[in-house]
Design a protein that fits this description.
The protein is α/β, with parallel strands linked by helices and 228 residues long. It contains 5 helices and 14 strands. The structure holds cytidine-5'-triphosphate (CTP) and calcium ion. Its EC number is 4.1.1.36, 6.3.2.5.
């Protein structure tokens, strides 16, 4: 028995979206991060609210305005993002992991500014691995549709397929970040979408706003794939 309103097909569904670049503090004035702007994740969040979903947007710092009706959870580090994702996971029907997280963090967070004259000229920063949020979500999912992203420069599809399997996702959106018009710091993106069935959709270059709509359409197809 399906009772889905045509214009609000995701009404009653909660979608957890992570976005932005996490920051790993080295000392009070320095951090490790990456150039992700958060645009892709915010576009997915916006597209999902338009379709009637309740959006929990777990976001690292960005310069963007969140969608009006989203429930926004602000985080900074990967560890904080991990904690918030795990805390909200059981409320979600869909998880989209757009955030560009740091794979490593400094093993020590200095509480005072590191002074350059106090360390050697070949000072080595020691790092430890962060939790893999998507992998943990994949491991602990309980009926949720899980959508991952991947950034690759070489052997794109081979690496992407491996990632999808390893992280137990239902869909994986792959960016070839060696290509023009893809990935970080642009308003457009060129991706391939991998599905659990083995199907691969190659999309043309398009705005992140448009791509957000398409990703949410694909999620909707996935949810209602058994719709008569
Ligand atoms: N991801 C995550 N937690 C991490 C690292 C990655 O949740 N600690 C998620 C990203 O949000 C993305 C997906 O995993 O949805 C793939 O990220 P990517 O950096 O492409 O892959 P990694 O598994 O980190 O492997 P590598 O960077 O070595 O390619
Ligand atoms: Ca990574």
């Amino acid at each position: 028995q399906f009772n889905v309103q045509a214009d609000q097909p995701l009404k009653g569904k909660t979608i957890l979206v992570t976005a932005g670049a996490t920051r790993e503090q080295i000392d009070p004035v320095r951090y490790l991060s990456n150039p992700s702007t958060g645009k892709m994740g915010y576009a997915v969040a916006e597209a999902a609210t338009k379709k009637g979903a309740h959006v929990i947007l777990i976001t690292a710092p960005t310069n963007l305005t969140p969608p009006q009706f989203a429930e926004v959870v602000n985080v900074t580090s990967t560890k904080e993002m991990y904690d918030q994702v795990m805390e909200n996971l059981n409320k979600a029907h869909i998880v989209v992991k757009t955030a560009a997280v740091s794979d490593y963090r400094p093993s020590t967070k200095f509480s005072s500014k590191l002074k350059k004259d106090d360390v050697n000229d070949d000072y080595q920063l020691s790092l430890v691995k962060n939790p893999d949020i998507l992998k943990e979500v994949g491991k602990n999912k309980d009926g949720q549709i899980v959508v991952g992203f991947a950034a690759e420069t070489d052997d794109i599809l081979k690496n992407a397929k491996k990632k999808m399997k390893n992280k137990n996702t239902d869909m994986l959106i792959v960016n070839d970040i060696s290509a023009k018009n893809a990935g970080f710091e642009t308003d457009v993106n060129t991706v391939k979408i991998l599905f659990l069935s083995g199907e691969i959709k190659e999309l043309p270059t398009m705005s992140k706003t448009r791509l957000g709509d398409i990703i949410v359409d694909e999620i909707e197809n996935c949810i209602y794939s058994d719709r008569p």
